[in-house]
Amino acid sequence: MKQPFIMNHPLIDHKVTLLRDKRTGSKEFRALISEIAMFMCYEATRNLSTTEIEVETPICKTTAKTLAGKKLAFVPILRAGLGMVDGVLNMIPAAKVGHIGLYRDPVTKEPHEYYCKLPADVENRDVILLDPMLATGGSAVDAVRLLKNHGVKSIKFMCIIAAPEGLDALTKAHPDVEVYCAALDEKLNDHAYIVPGLGDAGDRIFGTL
Ligand SMILES: O=P(O)(O)OC[C@H]1O[C@H](OP(=O)(O)OP(=O)(O)O)[C@H](O)[C@@H]1O
Ligand SMILES: O=c1cc[nH]c(=O)[nH]1
Ligand SMILES: [Mg+2]
């Protein structure tokens, strides 16, 4: 089983603290989610393969690295995952974007799928699944299953805050998926919200509190 990659970086910790603050309004919240996603994308793409090409600088000809290998797709889990999309696209503008719509039933906490639109060639792409919150893990487990049912073989999951329960569920169900998170919190409360967490990410991004 792969260990989750916890960002552990002062700039990210600072931004996550601002996200947690209940006084942070939607405009700033959205900007912070996007910035954190951009930083995280840097780590999640660290092992992309490169190849040498010839390039002529104003000084001389040389060989230099360029991205090689498979193409990427970002797949946000609606709604909250949408907040991470512009940050990661800032880093990799050529990536395709798929969407998986899931909402968590407020009573059972089980995820329900309501939308799925993926790039036609998704099975040939490295997919980075995006959702700021990994709580019980139900939504992430289902989203990864959906991607695998579409033939995707290489999947990374990027979240901003994870609960130990969600990490456990995701790594048990999908041990092949690498997980990147900005912060690993303490636990879930009786309503399956992350403690201390940041509240409901989707509602805070879209102002639907
Ligand atoms: O790990 P889990 O227990 O499944 O919980 C995490 C899910 O809950 C939230 O979505 P929500 O259902 O609130 O939908 P929203 O993004 O539309 O607000 C969050 O964005 C995750 O998708
Ligand atoms: O703490 C939580 C749990 C699920 N979804 C959220 O947005 N926040
Ligand atoms: Mg929500």
TrEMBL record:
Pathway annotation from the record: Pyrimidine metabolism; UMP biosynthesis via salvage pathway; UMP from uracil: step 1/1
One of the record's GO molecular function terms: uracil phosphoribosyltransferase activity
Regulation: Allosterically activated by GTP.
Keywords: Allosteric enzyme, Glycosyltransferase, GTP-binding, Magnesium, Nucleotide-binding, Transferase
GO cellular component terms attached to this protein's record: cytoplasm
Positions contributing to uracil binding: I194, G199, D200, A201
Entry-linked Gene3D superfamilies: 3.40.50.2020
Catalytic activity: UMP + diphosphate = 5-phospho-alpha-D-ribose 1-diphosphate + uracil
Binding residues for 5-phospho-alpha-D-ribose 1-diphosphate: R79, R104, D131, P132, M133, L134, A135, T136, G137, G138, S139, D200
Biological role: Catalyzes the conversion of uracil and 5-phospho-alpha-D-ribose 1-diphosphate (PRPP) to UMP and diphosphate.
Protein name (record): Uracil phosphoribosyltransferase
Annotated organism of origin: Merdimmobilis hominis
